[in-house]
Amino acid sequence: MNSFFRNTVSALLISVLAVSVAGADDFAVGDLTIEHPYSRATPPNAPVSGGYLTIRNLGGETDRLLGGEAAFAGKVEIHEMTMDGDVMKMRKLDDGIEIPAGGSIELKPGGHHLMFMQLREPMRAGESRTATLLFERAGKIEVEFGVEEFGAGQKGHRSGN
Amino acid sequence: MGLNIRTMAVIAVLAVLLAGGMAVIFQQFVAGRSDQLLTSGGAIGAPFELVDHNGEPITEQAMEGRPVAVFFGFAHCPEVCPTTLYEMAGWLNALGEEGEEIGAFFVTVDPERDTPEIMRAYVTNFTDRITGITGDPEKVAALTKSWFVYSRKVPLDDGGYTMDHTASIYLVGRDGNFKGTIAYGENGETAVAKLRRLVKG
């Protein structure tokens, strides 16, 4: 009984902890919430890395992610990756990405993503990197990207949280 | 004189038709040849003299007489290239001794930026089983062409550029014949099965 009680308490504690960790993962600015921003560990000398996140627009007006900046990278751009048959193509989205009122967008591996370019240091798993995102309506917000192990975000596998 | 002009006009029209017809036939020949290569196991590649990620010379001999898996990419690539190298390393690891004979190569389509040093750091971060290949841009272009790999430099507005490129892994048997590809994002088990079949020949 005693150990049952102890287990229950630790389970409760763990879930409270898990919720607060998940909470620390999220950011908000104006009507927008930003969930699970993450990047992936890079090989040494890799000049670029992707940034991934989900943005929800709880407001009644369309907003737009326009770009960003970061101390750890020379440039932050919004890119789109597409597969044309077996050819990989990547393009900068000059007009950013629209976040419809009441809707959400997901930046993820294999689709739209942030491009951290001219990296000043490798992205190391377990660390985090701060970047500022710029929105047309909501303005600027500082977001912390957790750096995950390389396979993160592949084919439905989602680590973290 | 009038007849002459008419005759000349007829000859001109015939010449244009003939040239057009030949162009169509040539295109079909080229397309047919590449289709055939991609399905029925013809020879692929051509002799080359480039450098590996240690800066040592490497030629087509490194790929001869053994099953080979070749991927074409570049270091300024956030997604497909690191993912593919990571997965390839995993498959080779999963195969263990069974896959020992496989030669695995990562050829840059961006030799201007991908020096041997960059290739070395990039590739060896994932595994010691894959050899990076770079070198003289014209020679690299000749190599990618001989593998029917598409790559194109796409300028970015800050003066930099990115590369569109074929993202499949090419599989070639001991006999030097093309055996198929592993597509980007292909299921891991399928990929391992393909590599296993490649070894069995």
TrEMBL record, chain A:
Amino-acid biosynthesis is among the record's keywords: no
Protein known as: Copper chaperone PCu(A)C
Entry superkingdom: Bacteria
Tagged with keyword Oxidoreductase: no
Residues annotated as signal peptide: 1-24
Keywords recorded for this protein, A-Z: Signal
